[in-house]
Write a structure and sequence with these properties.
Layout: H1 3-19, H2 42-47, H3 54-64, H4 66-69, H5 97-106, H6 122-136
Helix pairs in contact: 3-6, 5-6
Length: 140
């Protein structure tokens, strides 16, 4: 990793874990999403020849998300214990798939939820999305 990116990572870690950020309230805003994500659909993704595996999404959720969000999505995972930034808001039960996909890829501004774009593939993100839809009883 180039030196400037290493310093960015250090600054991020210090800001989050030492100084803290305000507790994140839900930014769901009735599911409003950016225009470039408005047409996302698992049906379209699958029609392009891709497959979605919610079970694999559960494994990825446990690996990348549960430390903060907890296995049940309530925002009280073990990774937030003694964290100056506290935990994320609980997942709303009616989140749609485009919103979930968008938040995983783009993160939540001014919070600990960073963007996973570049870390997770589109397929991994769809797998997590559909796993969450199953857990939360959300919709399209």
């Amino acid at each position: 990793m180039p030196q400037d990116e290493r310093w960015d990572a250090i600054k991020y870690l210090m800001a989050v874990f030492m100084a803290g950020k305000p507790k994140t309230e839900s930014v769901y805003n009735n599911g409003e999403i950016a225009n470039n994500y408005a047409l996302l659909s698992s049906d379209v993704y699958k029609s392009e020849g891709h497959s979605i595996d919610p079970d694999h999404g559960g494994e990825l959720y446990s690996q990348y998300c549960a430390a903060c969000h907890a296995e049940d999505g309530q925002g009280n995972g073990p990774g937030i214990k003694d964290n100056a930034s506290k935990g994320p808001a609980a997942f709303p039960s009616n989140m749609g798939e485009a919103y979930i996909y968008w938040r995983i890829m783009e993160g939540v501004p001014d919070s600990m939820m960073y963007a996973f774009q570049g870390t997770l593939t589109d397929n991994d993100t769809w797998d997590i999305t559909m796993n969450l839809i199953t857990k939360l009883g959300g919709g399209k």
